[in-house]
From TrEMBL:
<feature type="transmembrane region" description="Helical">
    <location>
        <begin position="70"/>
        <end position="88"/>
    </location>
</feature>
<dbReference type="InterPro" id="IPR022764">
    <property type="entry name" value="Peptidase_S54_rhomboid_dom"/>
</dbReference>
<keyword id="KW-0812">Transmembrane</keyword>
<feature type="transmembrane region" description="Helical">
    <location>
        <begin position="209"/>
        <end position="231"/>
    </location>
</feature>
<dbReference type="GO" id="GO:0004252">
    <property type="term" value="F:serine-type endopeptidase activity"/>
</dbReference>
<feature type="transmembrane region" description="Helical">
    <location>
        <begin position="251"/>
        <end position="271"/>
    </location>
</feature>
<dbReference type="InterPro" id="IPR035952">
    <property type="entry name" value="Rhomboid-like_sf"/>
</dbReference>
<feature type="transmembrane region" description="Helical">
    <location>
        <begin position="175"/>
        <end position="197"/>
    </location>
</feature>
<keyword id="KW-0378">Hydrolase</keyword>
<dbReference type="InterPro" id="IPR050925">
    <property type="entry name" value="Rhomboid_protease_S54"/>
</dbReference>
<keyword id="KW-0472">Membrane</keyword>
<dbReference type="GO" id="GO:0016020">
    <property type="term" value="C:membrane"/>
</dbReference>
<feature type="domain" description="Peptidase S54 rhomboid">
    <location>
        <begin position="105"/>
        <end position="246"/>
    </location>
</feature>
<protein>
    <submittedName>
        <fullName>Membrane associated rhomboid family serine protease</fullName>
    </submittedName>
</protein>
<keyword id="KW-0645">Protease</keyword>
<dbReference type="Pfam" id="PF01694">
    <property type="entry name" value="Rhomboid"/>
</dbReference>
<feature type="transmembrane region" description="Helical">
    <location>
        <begin position="148"/>
        <end position="169"/>
    </location>
</feature>
Length: 282
């Protein structure tokens, strides 16, 4: 039945035959209840909402506390289990620590070293896991679990490549054959990611800068700490955070892939041989 004898009732273009008296505020087409979407002013149809989302993509960002940092807890769990295995069997450390001289024949060591710690120093494990817990419970809910894991792994890779790159220069490096273990390279990447994120959100970064400065000084004055891995992880983490804050997910994953590829290329190009073997714990 029509409002008048000559005027047909308006129908939804997506559901022919469905009478729709409500019109989209954007395109002015009739919109049935199934196609209506709330808008800041009035109602928009589902097609206009999709077009708007496509034209103005937004990063998926949630507030800290909305998502349990299960990836952070998982990494802490893996590192703890690996440390216990190192205590029980010294060959675990031998198979998975990183040394630049082993990078070509056993490239997995670039990442596996980030899950090992000094079996003779519980504080080495506890300090890194505490730092991971502090940064993880803030970053993981903001970035999301998959992107946070990618940040951690790429930063860990950056730490190993940074150590390798600087070890190629005896005046600043610790030796091409010197082994390293520890999550500190990845943790420094998380530190810098917090700084980049807070700068983006216009939040205070003083406390994090103090933490970074203290750790940087300790890295230089305490023997046996591979500061080169800290530096490599920090630079990588800052670069990763910069791309992860982009609104377009394609840019985010493309940027992370480009950073990882660059690290692989630099690591491969730097492979060579060097002097005395030893141990440094990061």
């Amino acid at each position: 039945m029509s409002l008048s004898g000559n005027t047909p009732e308006p129908t939804c273009p997506r559901h022919p035959g469905q009478v729709a008296y409500v019109r989209c505020q954007r395109c002015d087409r009739p919109t049935c209840p199934a196609c209506q979407r709330p808008a800041p002013v009035g109602i928009q149809c589902v097609d206009c909402v999709k077009q708007e989302a496509k034209a103005n993509p937004r990063a998926v960002v949630v507030r800290p506390g909305q998502e349990r940092p299960v990836v952070s807890f998982g990494i802490i769990g893996v590192c703890t289990v690996m440390w216990l295995l190192q205590l029980m069997d010294s060959s675990v450390t031998d198979r998975f620590f990183f040394a630049p001289a082993l990078g070509e024949s056993e490239p997995w060591r670039f990442l596996t070293a980030a899950f090992l710690h000094d079996p003779g120093s519980p504080m080495h494990l506890l300090f890194n896991m505490y730092a991971l817990w502090l940064t993880g419970q803030y970053l993981e809910p903001v970035l999301g679990r998959v992107r946070f894991l990618a940040l951690y792994l790429v930063s860990a890779l950056g730490g190993s490549v940074g150590y390798e790159l600087l070890a190629a220069y005896p005046s600043v490096g610790s030796g091409w054959l010197q082994g390293t273990v520890g999550a500190s390279g990845a943790v420094f990447g998380l530190f810098l990611a917090v700084v980049v994120l807070n700068l983006k959100l216009k939040r205070d970064i003083t406390s994090m800068l103090v933490v970074i400065a203290i750790n940087a000084v300790l890295s230089l004055v305490i023997a046996g700490i591979a500061w080169q891995a800290h530096l490599g992880g920090a630079v990588t983490g800052a670069a990763c955070a910069a791309v992860l804050l982009h609104n377009d997910k394609r840019v985010q994953w493309g940027g992370l892939s480009a950073i990882a590829l660059l690290l692989v290329v630099v690591g491969w190009a730097t492979l060579g041989a060097g002097p005395q073997i030893g141990h440094a714990f990061v």
